[in-house]
Write a structure and sequence with these properties.
Layout (H helix, E strand, L loop, with lengths): L19 H8 L5 H4 L12 H14 L9 H9 L13 H8 L44 H9 L15 H6 L17 E10 L3 H9 L19 E11 L5 E9 L11 E10 L4 E9 L3
Antiparallel strand pairs: 1-2, 2-5, 3-4
InterPro entries: Cellulose_deg_GH3, Glyco_hydro_3_C_sf, Ig-like_fold
Keywords: Carbohydrate metabolism, Cellulose degradation, Glycosidase, Hydrolase, Polysaccharide degradation
EC number: 3.2.1.21
Amino acid sequence: MQMTMPGDIAFRSNDSYFGANSTAAVKNGEVTEDRVTLQDPINKHVDVQADHYKLVREMGAASTVLLKNPLEAPQQRAKQDHTTIGWWLNDWDTVGAANAAANKGAALVFVASDSGEQYITVDRNEDDRHNLTASNNILLWASRSSGLVFLDKSLRATSDPYTGGLLVDYRWFGTENIEPRYEFGLGLSYTTFEYSNLKVTRAEDALSKELIWWDGGVSGNKTGASIGAWLHDALFKVSFTVKNTGKVAGSEVAQMYINPPAGANEPPSVLRGFTKSTSNLASLRPSSWCCRGTT
């Protein structure tokens, strides 16, 4: 077993697949001791709160997403059958919402509720709730992704079958020579970057390990995996330099793609690595990747 999810094996069993069970597996010979001690031990006495707060703040600021008016799609759909769509986004103003819904044929109201697991599903109440009163005749429809579900049902949209296979997102655009409005991974920035000094070198022993594996020999795999250990080793090293050519400091997410042969039945470009670097004005930031057989 490579990993286990947090928590007990069964609800409130106070047991785990690791811990005492791992010790028992070593004693009865099911698992080697080297396999159990492969990872470094965890130090549970390190106070990381100060760094944690900084990291959370940094990640929150960097992950802010700008939505490009999600109301355009339903409006375009409504024009096809000559209907109109309005909206009210100030959820605190119930009077304004009521006025916006007046004289409309239908009103879609999206309400969020608390959620949990097992006995804490509804306000930590293990029993059925007895304080729900049907004092109104409004239909409450609870479902995941309820907004999209309501939009599809109300506008009689069909559900397309999933037939894309490997050709998803940027892979489909590359295969069909489609130029998207926004490239995969594109982020808006106040500065610009320049790439240079691209070098690709092959690992010295990568080919020998591959040939040994294909010949049926042992290639040093002692972890019990179902694939050759050489697939986890670095095959190529890719190095390059990123330069901030703008007027302000900024961050750039460099991406590495490979181009499989035409006969491999693969998309023309496949993402195999990415890294984010922050640099000040006119500064250089060297970067490198190790390209492995698997990712």
